[in-house]
Amino acid sequence: METVLYQFLIEVPQAAAIWSALLVVALGVLTALVARPEATTPAEPTAGADEAAQEAADLRRYAGEVAVAAAGAARTARRRRDAWRAAQEDLDRAWRAYDRAETAARRLAGTTALPTPRTPHTPAEYAARERWLHHAAMAAHWRGDLSASQLSDVFGRRAGWDPRRHPAEQEVVLARAVRDHLSAAYRSAAERERAAWRAAEVAVDAARALTTEAYAAAVRLRPAPVPAVRVPGAQRRPVAAARWRPAGVG
Predict the structure, then answer these.
(1) Where do transmembrane segments lie in this chain (predicted)?
(2) Contact at 8 Å (CB) between 206 and 77?
(3) pTM metric for this prediction
(4) What b/e sequence results for 205-226 when a residue is b if at least 16 CB atoms lie within 10 Å of its CB, and e otherwise?
(5) Do 186 and 42 touch, CB atoms closer than 8 A?
């Protein structure tokens, strides 16, 4: 149980930070693409310029689609995270219920060494025992401690249920049945929690991949740096190299 709690305390904040960052990045890329102005077309476009403009438009459209998909994937990852946290809470409740049932079953198991109280074996006594068992089983079922199938076995006198037993013995049998039911419920909750965690991992991987692709597409949309144009009139004339003259030559 401490391992489960440690995992919950450590991994939940990390996962929440990752999913939130993915959503922020995806929405940021989408906002940048929407706010990006269209490139102005030249007055007399050439065939090469038309092709370049078409490629830029296709890239812009692709980047926008990927950004929208990334934002949707990030929202899906957040929903899967919330579903996993709900499954984690269900698992914790199931564990606490099973732990209480196991403790009660062990405590009552220690009373089996004591002699069963002696009561008269009369029809009225057996009817009272049966009423006690039915009432206790119904109460356990309404608390969620006994399944409908187990309750049906109680009333059908199946699976070892014998209403003629003394209530002290029936209480031990009922405690074991409750423990078994809650143990199965805990295992089922653990499987649901693991499935929810796997689904959340798949969702965050998809969101991360789409966000990376959306960012890469947005980077490709950035205009290439324009090389600096040197103005001929602004160029400095090279300094003429001084000629070497022999000494004494005027």
Answers:
(1) 16-35
(2) yes
(3) 0.64
(4) ebbbebbebbbebbeeeeeeee
(5) no
Q: CB of 84 within 8 A of CB of 197?
A: yes
Q: Residue 98 corresponds to which tokens in the numbers above?
A: 């099973």
- Judged by DSSP in three states, 147 sits in coil
199, 79 in Cβ contact below 8 A?
no
Total domains in the fold of the chain: 1
Say how far apart CA 172 and CA 110 lie, in whole Å: 10
Establish if 91 belongs to a structural domain: yes
Structural domain includes residue 176: no
Q: What sign for the dihedral angle of Cα 239, 240, 246, 250?
A: negative
Residue 87 placed within a domain: yes
Angstrom distance (rounded) from CA 13 to CA 19:
10
> If you count DSSP H runs as helices and E runs as strands, how many of each does the chain have, helices first?
5, 0
Q: Please indicate, yes or no, if residue 240 is contained in any of the structural domains.
A: no
Q: How far apart are CA 80 and CA 70, in angstroms?
A: 15
Residue 70 structural domain = 1-38+51-115+199-222
